[in-house]
Amino acid sequence: MVKNSFIPIISEEKKKEENPGSVEFQVVNFTDKIRRLTSHLELHRKDYLSQRGLRKILGKRQRLLSYLSKKNGIRYKKLIKQLDIRESRIR
């Protein structure tokens, strides 16, 4: 499992924005959870409850990213580039 891989990004976000309720901060936290769950599922392929949790977190992150892209496209592009995740095809 990959642990503490996104601690520098999260601490950087905390310094820049002290609001843990901000969209960017939530997306960073969801991305960290997604990467940890993905590495867990590579070892435990039949863990269906974790698969369900992963799908729920992916949906939440997608909704937040969709909201951010509608409200502020510049912040959306910057966040996508910083986290190295793919841009959604459906917006």
Automatic annotation (TrEMBL):
<keyword id="KW-0934">Plastid</keyword>
<protein>
    <recommendedName>
        <fullName>Small ribosomal subunit protein uS15c</fullName>
    </recommendedName>
</protein>
<dbReference type="GO" id="GO:1990904">
    <property type="term" value="C:ribonucleoprotein complex"/>
</dbReference>
<keyword id="KW-0150">Chloroplast</keyword>
<keyword id="KW-0689">Ribosomal protein</keyword>
<dbReference type="GO" id="GO:0006412">
    <property type="term" value="P:translation"/>
</dbReference>
<comment type="similarity">
    <text>Belongs to the universal ribosomal protein uS15 family.</text>
</comment>
<dbReference type="GO" id="GO:0009507">
    <property type="term" value="C:chloroplast"/>
</dbReference>
<dbReference type="GO" id="GO:0003735">
    <property type="term" value="F:structural constituent of ribosome"/>
</dbReference>
<dbReference type="InterPro" id="IPR000589">
    <property type="entry name" value="Ribosomal_uS15"/>
</dbReference>
<keyword id="KW-0687">Ribonucleoprotein</keyword>
<dbReference type="InterPro" id="IPR009068">
    <property type="entry name" value="uS15_NS1_RNA-bd_sf"/>
</dbReference>
<dbReference type="GO" id="GO:0005840">
    <property type="term" value="C:ribosome"/>
</dbReference>
<dbReference type="InterPro" id="IPR005290">
    <property type="entry name" value="Ribosomal_uS15_bac-type"/>
</dbReference>
<dbReference type="Pfam" id="PF00312">
    <property type="entry name" value="Ribosomal_S15"/>
</dbReference>
<comment type="subunit">
    <text>Part of the 30S ribosomal subunit.</text>
</comment>
